[in-house]
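Entry 14. Ran structure prediction on the chain below.
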Amino acid sequence: MVGIQEPWAGHPLRDQPGKGCTPRWPSARWGAWQLALLVGLGLVGAGAAIAQQAPPIRQAFPMPPEYRDIQLRAQQAQRALLLAMVDSMPEQFYRTAAADGQRDFAQQIHHAVNANQYIVSHYVLGWDSLPFRPDTARIFNSRVALREFVNASYDFSIRVLQEEATADRQQLIWYFGQKMPKWMVWDELNQHTIWTAGQIVANFRSHGMPPPSFLYF
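Output, structure tokens:
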């Protein structure tokens, strides 16, 4: 392990009198500098750990009822974006991946859409089963079938969000190792969908195609 060297160690001017540039820091000041450096290095590691796993939320702070409308708009935007991708990609490229180890296009869409119905049914409703199981042999090879799957998943989740009781939205649950109110699950879900959709852009670029235009330009 490489140790921290005194800043003046080996300095050619250290012991020459009358040289104003000689760094002679007081020992207390240097000790504080060492401590700050070590703490800073520790915080870098801690910051990386925090980025990987956010701390659990311990209380359900209230959210205005109007926020449900914002979450509904996010759900509708997710549906619109995924449908635009389904419509824009030629069926002949549905089973093509952009890179080794990546899901192919149809699998990427399936991952986002199936996660939508799974998270809503399991974490919001507390079900042990999905509302429906898609026929992957069909949806992986057919634009019509893939569109039906997207619409079925979002018809389900949007209806649940519209009908979710206010008191139920405040209930604390464990969500992938974090404790949070149920209303926050919808925001976590939105992040996952957009994160997955962002990866699908590579599928379009690999074929020399632009992805669908953004929602309002």
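Confidence is low (pLDDT under 50) at residues 1-51. Will compare against last week's run tomorrow.
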